[in-house]
Amino acid sequence: MSQVVLLADDDAAIRMVLNQALTRAGYEVRPTGNISTMWNWVSRGEGDILITDVAMPDGNAFEVMPKIRKLRPDLPMIVMSAQNTFMTAIRANEVGAYEYLPKPFDITEVLSVVARALADVRKPTTGQRSGDEPADTMPLVGRSAAMQEIYRALARLMQTDLTVMITGESGTGKELVARALHDFGKRRNGPFVAINMAAIPRDLIEAELFGHEKGAFTGANTRSSGRFEQAEGGTLFLDEIGDMPMDAQTRLLRVLQEGEYTMVGGRTAIKTNVRIVAATHRDLGQMIRQGLFREDLYYRLNVVPIRLPPLRERVDDIGDLALHFLRVAQRDGEPVKAITPEAIKLMQNYAWPGNVRELENLVRRLSALYADERISVEIVQNELNITDRPTGSSSNGVVDVSVAVEAHVGQMLGEYEPNLPPAGLYQRVLDRVEAPLIAMALNACGGNQIKAADLLGLNRNTLRKKIRVHSIEIVKHSRRGH
Ligand SMILES: Nc1ncnc2c1ncn2[C@@H]1O[C@H](COP(=O)(O)OP(=O)(O)OP(=O)(O)O)[C@@H](O)[C@H]1O
Ligand SMILES: [Mg+2]
C-alpha cells in the first residue's frame, strides 16, 4: 500500500507540480489549499507525512504545527516557504519540522527529503522548545541563496553543543553568527563570552583564557577569573583564532581534549562546561602548511565549519542590508531616508572589500552627512569613488576582464610569497569568472534556463549543474521594456 502525503499550499501551481512528482514516485497525495482541511486530516490520523506551506489564507502553519507534534509526534512535517528569512528557518526548526525547504525548491530535493523523512520515522525529530522563547527579532539580514544555506545550517545547530568554526573575510558577520548560535541555542540562558586573540598581548592570552592565581606573575596581585570560568554553562567565542600563539594553542588543545584546565600559577584541575565557537578571517589550511597553526587543534575546532561568503558573492543581499541599516539609523534619530533602486544597483557592482561592515558604515555616513531625502546614484558614486578605480577601468567604467584576471592572479601569487598558493588555481580562477557570467546570463533571460543555456551556448544539463555548484539564485521575471 502506498504511503500518503498530505500537501498543504495555497498556490495551486505548486500543488499540481508536487502532486504529479510525488504521484509518479509512487505516493498517494492529498492536496489542499488551506490549513483547516489539513488539520482535519491530521487530527483524524490520516497521512504518513505532511508537506506544508507557512502562510495560508486561513492561518499560519507555524501555529498548528506544535499541536500536530503533540497529537502525532511520528508524523514528519516538511515546511516550504517563500519567506526565506533567518527566522523562518529557526521557527521551522522550533516547531519540530523535519526539514525546511526555501522556495523555489528543487523537485528532486523534495522527493529525496520525503523519502529520507519516511525512512527516519519513529526516530524523534529535534527537541521542542519550552518556556522562554527567544525574542522574535531578526539578527541576520539577507535572503540570498548563500545565506539561506547558512540559516538552515544554523537552525540545525541550535539544539546541539557542537563546536563550530566560522570563517569568512573581515566584516562578513562572523561575530553576529556566533551570537545568533548562542542567543537561539539551548545555552541561551547562560553567558556568552568573547575573547579576541588578536587584541590581547601574546604573553597574556593564557591568563586571559584560564585566569591566574594571586602571585602567578609580576603584577598578578589578586586571583583573577579567566574566560573559561566566566563562560561556564554558556558559550565561549574564540575570535581571531588564527592569531593565537603556538604555546597557547597547545594549552587550548589539551583543555579541549580533557575538558578541564588549571589557572596560570594554579595546581588544581577545574572541570569546564562551555560550548566553543571559533572564528577567523585567515586561511587556517595555509597556516597549518606553514607551521603556524596546529593541525590537531584545527580538527578539534572544525567540527562544523560555516563559511560566510563575501558580500560580492551575495549581491542580492545588498538591498535588504542597506534598508536594514537605514532603519537602524532612523531608530538612532537620523532623518527618514530612502535609497533609489539605481543607487542599490550601483552598490551591487561594487566589490565591498570590507563586506557588510563597509556597507553599514557607508549607509550610516550617507544618512548622517547628506541632507537629501533620497540617496541617489550620484551620492553613492561620490562616496564609493566608483568612477575612478585605479586599474583595469576603460573609459566607460567597465573593467577589462583580462586586466582584472591578471590583477587577481597577481594578488593571489603575492599573498603566498615566497611559497605558491594551494593547488587548483586554474579551477578557482575559472570559478570566479563563471559564477557572475552565468548569473548575469540568467538574469538577462528573465531566469529562463533554456534561453540562458542558448545564450551561453551551453548544454542545459551543464547549465543546471553549474547553477547548483555556484548556488546561483534564479529570479524569474519578465525583462524590462518587453
Ligand atoms: N547578515 C547581516 N545582517 C545584519 N547585519 C550584519 C550582517 N552581517 C554583518 N552585519 C553587521 O556588520 C558588522 C560586521 O559584522 P561582524 O563584526 O559580525 O563581522 P566579522 O566577520 O566578525 O568581522 P571581522 O573579521 O572584521 O571581525 C556588524 O555591525 C554586524 O552587525
Ligand atoms: Mg569579528
Automatic annotation (TrEMBL):
Main location: cytoplasm
Sigma-54 factor interaction domain location: 140-368
The entry's keywords: Activator, ATP-binding, Cytoplasm, DNA-binding, Nitrogen fixation, Nucleotide-binding, Phosphoprotein, Repressor, Transcription, Transcription regulation, Two-component regulatory system
Subcellular location: Cytoplasm
InterPro entries according to UniProt: AAA+_ATPase, AAA_lid_NorR, CheY-like_superfamily, Homeodomain-like_sf, HTH_Fis, P-loop_NTPase, Sig_transdc_resp-reg_receiver, Sigma_54_int
Pfam families: AAA_lid_14, HTH_8, Response_reg, Sigma54_activat
Domain annotation Response regulatory: ranges: 4-118
Positions of modified residues (4-aspartylphosphate): 53
Free-text function comment from the UniProt entry: Member of the two-component regulatory system NtrB/NtrC, which controls expression of the nitrogen-regulated (ntr) genes in response to nitrogen limitation. Phosphorylated NtrC binds directly to DNA and stimulates the formation of open promoter-sigma54-RNA polymerase complexes.
NCBIfam families assigned: ntrC
Protein name: DNA-binding transcriptional regulator NtrC
Name of the gene encoding the protein in the UniProt record: ntrC
